[in-house]
Amino acid sequence: MAETTAEGPAIDALSLIPKAEAKQSMKDFKTDQEVRWCPGCGDYAVLAAVQGFVPELGLAKENIVFVSGIGCSSRFPYYMNTYGMHSIHGRAPAIATGLAATRRDLSVWVVTGDGDALSIGGNHLIHALRRNVNLKILLFNNRIYGLTKGQYSPTSEIGKVTKSTPMGSLDSPFNPVSLALGAEASFVARTVDSDRKHLTETLRAAAAHPGTALIEIYQNCNIFNDNAFEVLKDREQAQEAVIRLEHGKPIRFGTDDHKGVVRDPATGDLEIVEVTAENEADVLVHDAHAATPTTAFALSRLADPDTLHHTPIGVLRSVDRQVYDTEMAEQLDDAVQHKGKGDLSALLAGGDTWTVLG
Amino acid sequence: MTSEVNSKEVKRLDRVIIRFAGDSGDGMQLTGDRFTSETASFGNDLSTLPNFPAEIRAPAGTLPGVSSFQVHFADHDILTPGDAPNVLVAMNPAALKANIGDVPRGAEVIVNTDEFNKRAMAKVGYAASPLEDGSLDGYSVHEVPLTTLTVEALKEFGLSRKDAGRSKNMFALGLLSWMYNRPTEGTEGFLRAKFAKKPDIAEANIAAFRAGWNFGETTEDFAVSYEVAPAESAFPAGTYRSISGNLALAYGLIAAGQQADLPLFLGSYPITPASDILHELSKHKNFGVRTFQAEDEIAGIGAALGAAFGGALGVTTTSGPGVALKAETVGLAVSLELPLLIVDIQRGGPSTGLPTKTEQADLLQAMYGRNGEAPVPVVAPATPSDCFTAALDAARIALTYRTPVMLLSDGYLANGSEPWRIPEVDDLPDLRVQFATKANHTLDDGTEVFWPFKRDPQTLARPWAVPGTPGLEHRIGGIEKEDGSGNISYAPSNHDLMVRTRQAKVDGIDVPDIEVDDPEGPAGERARTLVLGWGSTYGPITAAVRRVRRAGDRIAQAHLRYVNPFPANLGEVLAAYDKVIVPEMNLGQLAALVRARYLVDAYSYNQVNGMPFKAEQLATALKEAIDNG
C-alpha cells in the first residue's frame, strides 16, 4: 500500500521508473501542437493541472506514456511531450495493459471519457480495474458526447434531451465511482476540473498507487452540456453539495461542517444528518484503506444522480493488492529459476525423436 | 523397437491408413496421438487427421458424438492423411455407422462387440445388427469384445467394471500396435508420465495396452501382422520428431522472439481451434514469453499492439470470428505502422460455423476485412510443420516493414501431425531489429528532430522508437498523419500520399518467387494446365498431382505461401499456361484475387464440407480440367 507518511506518500508505483536527470517544469511537458479543444472547455484545466503536476514526479519524461481512446479528451496525448498513443474508441485500457505488462519501467496513463470508458470500452475498463495493472486512468466525465456533437452519454441523467433523445433519454446513468468499486478497483477517486488544488492532490495520490488507479474528473463541456457540474463549483452551492473526503477525517460538509455522514444502525446504510453534540461521535471517519469496498460504495451512492447533491470527491478507496504486471514478471523469473533460461534447441528437439542417417 | 517376438506371419506393406473411431468419451484422440508417436519414432512418414465434435461431451452413442482420428503412414513420403482407411476401429455402433461409408470393401474393420447391443444400435438407426445382416460382407470384420477383454485383463487392479472399461482404448491401441509392429516403449513411458500422480491408473492402462498386444499375438482371428518399413529414403538426414501445426506455430513464435531478441507477448482470447497456441506459449515463460488471456478478442489484440509499441514482438492468436472482432485494431496497427502478428486458425464459417472443422474462407477477410485502404501482408503455411517456418517469416515481415501481418493456418494444419526435421538453431534467420535511438531529421532552421514517419527509402518502414528512448518522445495515433513529422493532418494531398505509401510498402515486401513444378517430358513437352493452391491444400493437391502424372497426364503445380503481396513472378507463371485451376476450401477466394489482379481465367474447384480435400477426388477434378481444356 502507498502508505502516507509524514513526508508524504511513498512512491512505490514509480520505483522502477528512471528519474529525470534535471529538474523539470511545466514547459518541458508542453508540445508544439496547437491545442484544438473548444475555447472554454474543461479539458484545458485538466491538461494544465497534469502538465503542472507531472514534473513533481521527477520521472524521465521518455518513460512516461499517455494512451487514449476516442473522444474530445482523447486528444490529450498530442499535447503532452511524452510518448503517447491516440488509439481507437474504448480500447485504451487494453492497449495500455499490454504496454504496462511488458514495460514496468514506464509510467502509463490512460486518458478517456464517459463514452469511451463506459459505453464502447466498458468491458476493458472493468477488466483493467479488476486486474490491477499499473495504469493511471483519467476518466473525463462531462455527461455528454461532445465529439459527435451532443448525444446523451452513459452518465447523462435520465430524461436528458439531446439530438438523439428529443423526448428525453430512457436509461439510467452509471455512477463511474460505484462501477469501479464494483469492479474490484484498488484505487478510486473523484475530482473536479476547476479545482486545480484538489485535482493535483488526487493525481499525486493516484501516481503513488501501485496498480490501476481510476480518477473520475468532472469536466465541463461548455458547448453541449454547459454547467453540468455548476452545483459542485459555485462557491455557495458547493458547500452543501460537495462532500470532501479525507482519509482519517470525519466525513462532514456544509457551512461550518453542520452536516455529517453516519451509519444507520438498522440498515447499515449511510445517511446524512445534521451534526449535533449528541451525534458528533457517530460521524463516520473516512477510511480509504478499508479492506472491503462496502463503505466506499455506500459513500458513492450518497450523490443524487440528477442534482449531484452530496457528491463525494477525493479518494474513496486506496488499498494494496496484487499488481498484475508485478506478478507476471515474477512468474517469468520463477520459470527461469525452476526450468533455467529457455533453450531453443532443447525445446525444438522435444521428447520423442528419431534420426535419419545420410 | 519392441523386444517381444512376433510369431505369426508378417506381411510387408508400403502404406496403411488407420481410422480410430468411437464416442467422444472413448479417448480416440489420445489413442490416435499415441499410435502416431509410435509410428513417428519408428521412422515412417505420416500424416494425421483428427476429427471431433465441437461439444465437450456430446450425447453418448450418437452419430454427432463420434470422434475419430485417422493416421496414414508409409515407407515413402506421403502428403495427406489418406482418403480411404485400410483399417477402421469402431468402438460402438455410432462409430461404425458414421465411418463405414469412407471404408472400401476389403478393408479390415475391428468392432467392439460389447457395445453392439439392441439399444445402442437402435439409437443410430440400425434395425438389425450390421454384424449379422450381411451389410459388412466383403469387409474383413474382426469382432472383438474389447470392453470385456479389458475388464478381464484388469481384474487384479480392483477397479469397478466401469473404470476398468475406460482403458479399452489402450487395449485397442495395443492390438493395433501388434498388428503393425509398432514400438511400445514410448506409450508405456507416456502413460507413466501422464498418470504420475496415480500410479495404479498408469499400470492399469499399461496392462490393458499389453493385453491388447497379447490378444493379437495369441488369438486366431488375427492371422497376420504387417510391417511398414521406415521411410528412410524419403527423408533427408537429420533428427526428426512428429509435430502438429499448432505446436509448430507456437514454437515458431518462440523462435521468432529469440531470433529477434525481443520479448514475445501474446494477447489472446480462448477460441477453437487456436487455443492450443495460448496453452503452449503459457508453458514457456522461461523464454521471457508473456501470455495474456484477455477479456475479449479486441483486448487480446489491443494488448499485443500496446506491447509492440513498447518494443515487444506482439502476437494475437484467434480464429475467424475473432479476426472479425479485431478488425478495427488491425486497422490501427496499419495506421500506426507497428509490427504485429495476427494468427488466424481458420475454421468453418460464417459466424460460429463449424468450430472444430477446417476451411479456408477467411482469406478475403484477412485481405480486406477493415475500413479504409488497410493493406496487410498475408502468409499461409502449407503443412503442419511449415507453420514453424511461416511464423518466423511472418515475424520477419512484421519487424522489417513495421506492419501487422496475417498468418493464415486452419483447423486441418492446426491439429494434423507430420514428421518434422528439427532445425538447427544456428540456421534460423536473424530477425534482430534496430530501434531508433536518435534524431533523424533536420528542420529548415537546423534543429535536429525525430520524425516518427520518416521512412527507410528501401523498405518504406518507419522508425520504431520505443518509450524510454530519450529525445524521441512522440505521439502516434489512428488519425491521418503528416508524412514525415507524423503530426495530425487532414490535408487531402497528404492523405492521398499516405494511403498510397502504405500500399506501396506492403506491395514492396520482399517475398520469394513462386516455384512451378512442371517436369519436362522426354521431348521437352510441358503441361498446359496449372493447378494453383495456397495454404493447407498443399498436401492433397500434391498427392492429386502425383496421381494425375502417374496416370500419364501432364499438369503443372504451384503453391502460394505469400498471398499478399503475391510473388513478383506470379503473373508470368499464370500467363504461361492455357488453363489455371484453383482448388480451395472456400467458394473461390484466391481465384477471385488472381482473376482481379492478373485478368487470368482461373477456374475454381471448391469444397466447403469442413474436411480437407481427398486426393482421389482432386485428381479426378484435375483430370477433368486437363481433358476439358
Spatial strand order of the main sheet of chain B: 11-10-12-13-15-14-23
Helix content of chain B: 25-40%
Order of helical and strand elements of chain A: EEHEEHEHHEHEHEHHEEEEHEHHE
Report the radius of gyration of chain B as a whole number of Å. 27 Å
Average pLDDT level of chain A: 95
Ranges of chain A with pLDDT <50 over ≥5 residues?
A: 1-11
Radius of gyration of chain A: 23 Å
Description:
Chain A is 29% helix and 18% strand. Chain A has 358 residues and is α/β, with parallel strands linked by helices. In chain B, 35% of the residues lie in helices and 20% in strands. Chain B has 20 helices and 25 strands. In chain B, the strands form six sheets. In chain B, strands 11-10-12-13-15-14-23 form a seven-stranded mixed beta sheet, with helices on both faces. A six-stranded mixed beta sheet of chain B has the order 3-4-2-5-6-7, sandwiched between helices. A five-stranded mixed beta sheet of chain B has the order 20-22-21-24-25, sandwiched between helices. In chain B, strand 5, helix 2 and strand 6 form a beta-alpha-beta unit. In chain B, helix 7 packs antiparallel against helix 8 and helix 11 runs parallel beside helix 12. At the A-B interface, strand 3, strand 4, helix 2, helix 4 and helix 10 of A face helix 1, strand 9, helix 9, helix 11 and helix 12 of B. Strand 4 of chain A pairs parallel with strand 19 of chain B, so a sheet runs across the interface.
